Predict the structure.
Amino acid sequence: MINRPDKAKLYYPHMPATWWLRKRSYFMFMLREFTSVFIAIYLVVFLISLYRLGQSEAAYAAFVDGLRSPGWLAFHWVALLFAIYHSVTWFLSSAVVLSLRLGTWEAPRWLVAGAHIGGWLVVSVAILILYTVL
Amino acid sequence: MSEETITLNVTRFRPGQDSEPVLQSYTIPYRKDWVVLDALNHIKDWVDQTLSYRWSCRMGVCGSCGMMVNGEPKLTCSAFLREYYPNPVTVEPLVNFPVMRDLVVDMSDFMDKLKSVKPWLIREEEKPVSEGEYLQSPAQLGVYKQFSLCINCMLCYAACPVYGLEPDFIGPAALALAHRYNEDSRDQGKEQRREVIASNEGTWDCTFVGECSVVCPKHVDPAAAIQRLKVDNTKSWIKSLLLPKGGRA
Amino acid sequence: MTHDIVIVGGGGAGLRAAIAAAEESSNLSIAIVSKVYPMRSHTVSAEGGAAGVLREDDTLEFHAKDTIFGADFLADQDVVETFVKEAPGELVQLEHWGCPWSRDPDGKLSARPFGGMSVNRTLYAADKTGFHMLHALFQTSLKYENIVRYDECFVTSLLVDDGRVIGVTSLNLYTGKVEVVAGKAVIMCTGGGGRVFPFTTNASIKTGDGMAAAYRAGAALKDMEFVQYHPTGLPGTGILITEASRGEGGWLVNKHGHRYLEDYGLGPPSDTPVNRKMELGPRDILSRCHMQEHMKGNTFEGEYGHYVHLDLRHVGREVIDGKLPFVRELVRNYVGIDPVYEPIPVRPVVHYMMGGIHTDITGKTTLNGLYAAGETACVSMNGANRLGSNSLTELLVFGARSGRAAAQFVAGQQAPSASALEALAKDEQRRLDSNFMKKEGGTEEIAQIREEMQAAMEEGAGIYRDETRMKATCDKLSELRGRFANIKIVDKSEVFNTGITSALELDSLLHVAETVAHGALSRKESRGSHTRTDFPDRDDVNYLQHSMCYQTPDGPRVEYLPVTITRWQPEERKY
């Protein structure tokens, strides 16, 4: 049992729908959440392209051709930026989640995040090279 | 004596009298070594006896004096006026909590949540005191030490939009303390805490905004604690799927 | 509400008492009534550590002797012997309850040097020992279903029926109602009253409410003249810079860069700390040395008066961050310098009251059914000067003892009579209404009276005292008591009325101040923290006795009670 105030006498503040505009960090958080919408759409597009490729080379070429429109190009640029933003925040977050300890020493966050981002860059560059070489 | 003054806009809420909180302005002498709490004390002592707020240690360890200072959750005993001068300073009660009076919020909700995570050392078998202490290496201490530094000041709850939108969320400080005991090498109570921690109102309500850790005056990092609890719960869940008897012997 | 045991105050002593009583029997209903949430209690601010014999190079005899010597032989030696014997178990018990004590590489509890202690026996949790102890106790208390809490309820009086304490009245801050919390026994654990002085390490809540309530109810306040100045507080704010900073090797230097303590018989200086020498001398002596340096013109002068330097630079960043992180945080925040690179300005500030409600070795007071523990009590283990790190252990040992004693006491007691409770509560409501809640037309400002009281205490009851100035202080205090009757109460609201609580606290402070000043005036000798320029020597013939202060309509009456000596005959106190 604990002492409690009379609920009827309390003032209950309500959170405005625009709460995420109040602070930069809240806005960046909402942006991070919002990026998943674009990434999801991109994935759907990607899955369709795989489906077309399974149908025939011509079907795939026609589909890819359709994506060359300015609207789709713009979408892909935005999706790319968002994917990068999401990935960076993901790897920065991973440093918070992962605690690497050796005795009393704990790996500093920048090291964990740096290792993640470094690895990500290496893999991305490798894919890019493979893509251009092949 | 200095002639400089500073204006404080302070929330007043008199239950039964005001239907909602209003800001009241006080212009008082400015001193560069004053914190916001000193300014409130000056008002209380010499200008307006009816202003109510909590405070005690004035050295950032008792956790009483958390308020919104210009919209940011702060311990007013460590928020210096010089950071704001010559601009006015707005002092409001911590957001996301019901307001009881002026700058005083109702935190009984937290007291219930704290208890719900069983923030005490749980042992399968107690060792008699006569047999001495449980051994714990500095490295084992280091694993949970940071999470034991929570002063229950409630700044993290004020910074957490999830708590604002979803008042049932157990919230950063209570979960950080749950993690503190889970990670203590002397504790054996993880399973007893799991139900509450792994519930919807537990860690899974957290969307990792991360502001709790930003505002924490003691660098407890509740956001890290919650994410690590999530990882731990997930591991335990996978284990329960893969192993007979839920992975428990 | 009726309980078996009502504990007033939710700090270290109160929580320890509650747990001890709860462990005696799960059938007991135990209430903790506190004007703040338990984790806000001032135990939270203790930094340095808690003493107890746990290491092989130490003995109970050493600890007892250090304590008695530090107390300038005014400690009751049977109490000290019990204290040192039970201290190790209590510290281990707290370890079992999760307190994150700092550890040696082998996983055992670590111990550091502390002022006046002959060996390293002060356990610590970095430099937030009180914080960790309080939170460990509070969180542990949550698991006992028979402990109920009245958080943010301000106890205004003890209810005494026919010589027996049967509960308290408390002002519920949430409703503004005066409620009766009845119990077969009451334990006072309300801390000290350092706020009677202007410069103190004490939190704002340290207003001696429990001492004053017991005093008004007829209990004796013992050895109130003994007020400890901590030699290293920050000028202005009075924020504590722990003695552990000297235990870890910090130096006190005057404005000429000289480690002046060697000029006062505390030498020889050495680069590494030596127990009981130099900066590890006892607090009363170090505070007097500071004042002597000031009189010689060797201190710095700043906005908040004289100060010296506490130099930690040679201690190094690694030790500071590892063992004194809070010191670094506090100095950076409140002084704006980094102790790794610059010396810290410090001055003596009021820290602790050795005196308090007179109790026996079980925590029992002179009022039937009333117990007390912690700083608010005077069980007489600290005598005329407490050694640093003994008080955190004291609140465990005597908190637990009073909890157990109260639990045993209530077993044979009838529940308080409802009619007596009602009548007493009515009287108290009337007193509160006429003096506070419904008081009209006063003109005296609370803050004005408080500031004048604090100035008078600093002037007449500070580190150095003499008859003329003490008399002036006593006169000033009775003038302030008279003016207090004409106090101005503007806030008439019900919810969280801190105008009323400020007035109630000032009432308590004036009572406490009065007992300190009158106790000091009556003691015509110098002993421990009580230093009189007109009686510079210790007088064992007349004053190897505790002062006992009782309230009378004409002001405090001081009586004396002999000190209990067991094995250690008084000798000259030299370090």
